Amino acid sequence: MSNFTIPVGPLHVALEEPMYFRVDVHGETVANVDIHAGHVHRGIEYLATKRNIFQNVVLTERICSLCSNSHPQAYSMAIEKIAGIVVPERAEYLRAIADEVKRVASHLFNVAILAHLVGFESLFMHVMEIRERMQDVKESLFGNRMDIGANTIGGVRYDIDAERIGYLEQQLAWIENALIEVVALYRSNGSILGRTRGIGVLSHADALECGTVGPVARASGIRYDVRVKAPYAAYDRLEVPVHTLPDGDVWSRAMVRLAEAQTAIDLIRQCVRDLPDGPTTATTERPSIPAGEAIAKCEAPRGELIYYVRVGESPKPERVKWRVPSFMNWDALRIMLRQAKIADIAIIVNSIDPCISCTER
Amino acid sequence: MIMPASLEMRLAEAAASGIRYTSETDAKGIACAWCTLARAEDLLPAAALLKAMDARLSTITVFQPKAPPAAAVAEGEEAPPAPTFLGGDVANDGSSYEIDYHFDLDGDTVTLVAHVPAGGAVDSLTPLFRGADWPEREMMEIYAVGVKDHPDPRRLFLDPGIEGAVLERLIPLSTLINSATTKGLWEKIMAQTGSPT
């Protein structure tokens, strides 16, 4: 058998965003992968220091679309920590609802793409149809389908009344029923299992070594979820089960995401059930932000998102740094792809649910 | 939520040149500790201690802290020496770098803070924490900071043809797209393609 080096990307039909993989193959088997990043490096961290503290709530939401809510949430949490702002309880629950709505839509998008890459187009379209219901929820509750603008420093920018809660519960019931059927398919269908079981394996030890986070880590048996380990918003008052699987293959990562989508529905219901009355922001005035520095973390759909913010005397922050979950998971991809078949490259890459816009900023 | 009470003492033992340690716990019981190292040479032993405690490197932040306002000097008096970070040998003059290594300890956060002068270098943590690889490569291309003994010190996001330390200087968009002005771009196109008529 011959050795070849083949390029995958940066523009490739199976990649949602540009990334270049230089793949050394021996026959049909991957021997080594080198990842070349930088195609959507936009310098947003630099830009964040040229906007004032409040403008950055809007800017950070535009880093990425799928986990767009997590960025302004973690950024706002860091600023609130610096300023000693106590977020009202109702706003904490509303933040958790927004977080979980986005999680359902994000996870379903990823498992839908998996079906597409397997060639199971009817399943792909069916899962996207379910996700579309959550897109409708976003549009109805927040006014937007992707960048939902839910967060502000000191609370949230949206509220829900009895009528909207009724609509939300109706949609959740539909999505929940549809998901039961979908989960059973992913658990038993021969086409799905044949292309995902034992493929792209990341062992527990390797997952720890790479510092992986989110569903990628949990599918390799790492029981870490920011919502449980470092609770924020209303998560300290919610029952958040952490889903883990031991095998670390493509299938396990998809099943963890599906389980988390189902759990997210339950979490939204918990929030709606316990939603306290009260204001949705700490203050109606623009709060004064003193000099200081803080770290905030939240569980974005892809895993731990961490923000560091440092504020000086200027209205513009001196430094805003964030590290998205995908940033840690790319390295694990090199291990997952080792000894993989060329035909499985796209499926394995998709299984880390990579976000390149987030990674490169 | 397992940050041991002895962490400060153990970090002080690991970092022989001295530390400044602060920690706080938020309303939800999550602790956040900051450990500033008097000398960046103590970074490796301090990081090794955290590794032994099963810490995970979350990320690395680099920035240039602004210099504190200069003290007023009376006429005839000699200006005091430039302040340094934590009594170390790195000047706090606006040109030096602060490098924050954020570690996760089962939900709590510990940040090791090291200071290096512009053009200086710190030891690589990649041999200890595989996840330091990309953040250190990014650090090297964005700032005038080197990383000693990094196993793969190639560019991460930026093309090798671009001069390093890009956050050190203003690069106008017109320069970035290889034309001084919009008019310049038009003239350049005209020079290559001829008259539009």
Beta strand % of chain A: 5-15%
Task: Please report the total strand number of chain A as a whole number.
Answer: 8
Helicity of chain B, in percent?
10-25%
What best-fitting shape of chain B do the alpha-carbon axes yield?
A: globular
Strand-pairing-aware structural class of chain A:
alpha+beta
Could you explain the architecture of this structure?
Chain A is α+β, with helices and mostly antiparallel strands. Chain A has 14 helices and eight strands. Chain A has helices spanning 44-48, 55-61, 70-83, 89-118, 121-142, 162-188, 190-196, 204-210, 214-218, 226-229, 250-274, 325-337, 345-351, 356-360, and strands at 3-8, 20-26, 29-36, 151-152, 155-156, 292-300, 303-311, 317-323. In chain A, the strands form three sheets. In chain A, strands 1-2-3 form a three-stranded antiparallel sheet, covered by helices on one side. In chain A, strand 6 and strand 7 form a beta hairpin. The two termini of chain A are 40 Å apart. The model of chain A has no long low-confidence stretch (mean pLDDT 92). Chain B has 197 residues and is α/β, with parallel strands linked by helices. Chain B has a domain at 7-120: 2-Layer Sandwich (Beta Polymerase, domain 2). Chain B has helices spanning 7-14, 43-52, 133-142, 173-176, 182-193; strands at residues 19-25, 31-37, 56-63, 97-105, 108-116, 121-123, 146-148. The longest helix of chain B has 12 residues, at 182-193. Chain B is globular, with a radius of gyration of 22 Å. The interface between A and B is large, with 36 and 35 residues.
